Amino acid sequence: MPNILVLSAAMMMERKPMPLKMLLTFAFSSLRQRAFMNRTVGEILWGYDDPLISLVNKYLPGTFPIKGKFGLFAELNNSNSGLFTVYTGIKNFSRVHLVDRWNGLSKVNYWHSDQCNMINGTSGQMWAPFMTPESPLEFYSPEACRSMKLIYEEAGVFEGIPTFRFKAPNTLFANGSVYPPNEGFCPCLESGIQNVSTCRFNAPLFLSHPHFYNADPALAEAVLGLHPSEKEHSLFLDIHPVTGIPMNCSVKLQLSLYIKAVQGIGQTRKIAPVVMPLVWFEERGAMEGEPLQKFYLQLVLLPKVLHFAQYVLLALGGLLLLVPVVYQIRSQERCYLFWSRDKKGSRDKEAMQAYSESLMAAAPKGTVLQEARL
């Protein structure tokens, strides 16, 4: 494992006078500090006691930002990501969840342009509801010391819940020559890695996707065992578009150290220039269990039932309106038939009476007519 303290100190001393470099070399030798070391994963991540830190803090107090144990995530252990002040959306619903300030700051001062220093988007926990594929998905990451903007990839389904998948664009960690808006994050090396030294004690640390995915191929080729893969190393968030709530997310990032030989510091004399991966990590989460069941019932299943119920109710309403209309039509038909039959009967009686009168007129006087009964 690269000795981050030794190699970082060597890089920071690169432009210093030679006597100071020789003094640092002597200090490293006295404390038995080498360019590479053996440490457990727990020590590398969460910190270990280093004699170099103890020596500097003892004789030069206040000159070193680290006071206790040194580790890549020592400051993040059992801690939060800072205080976010966000909009409630009461006055402007479109700004709900957007970050107004982080730790009291409306912008940071790590970078070299106003655009790169802006705190944009949300805190990464929720976004505004009623999203569309054109909706921006932006959040501020204290770990990356910057805002990140993801782009829409495709619509999908997570456990029966419709989602929009947003992924990191190819330009997220591109250098300024490939993507000019990122010029403010420079000085840069190859494209695909972001220099985060200004927010990491000026140590030559770089942030990227794992295995240098979406980065210059030369970076992965310089280190054995790296195999960039979109499936294994991409960054994505699956968001329920109606509520803006993340259903499933996977944020994968890699931290690397730029090392090389520094003239005057003996511990680095055999090191070739390379961006050496230190660790890559994944922050993954998904809604599950009872919250997932309630979410599906109330925001997916129930709206579907109500959607179909409106057509059922519409059909029933139409049927109820149709019944009296049919009844009225049938009633009018019965009245017409009765009137028709009554009129026909009247005509028959009139014909019979006329026939009888004709017989009476034709018969001689004194003739007795017999009544015939059917």
UniProtKB/TrEMBL annotation:
Principal location: membrane
Domain of life: Eukaryota
InterPro entries listed in its UniProt record: CD36_fam
GO MF, one annotated term: low-density lipoprotein particle binding
Protein name: Scavenger receptor class B member 1
Family per similarity comment: Belongs to the CD36 family.
GO cellular component, one term: cytoplasm
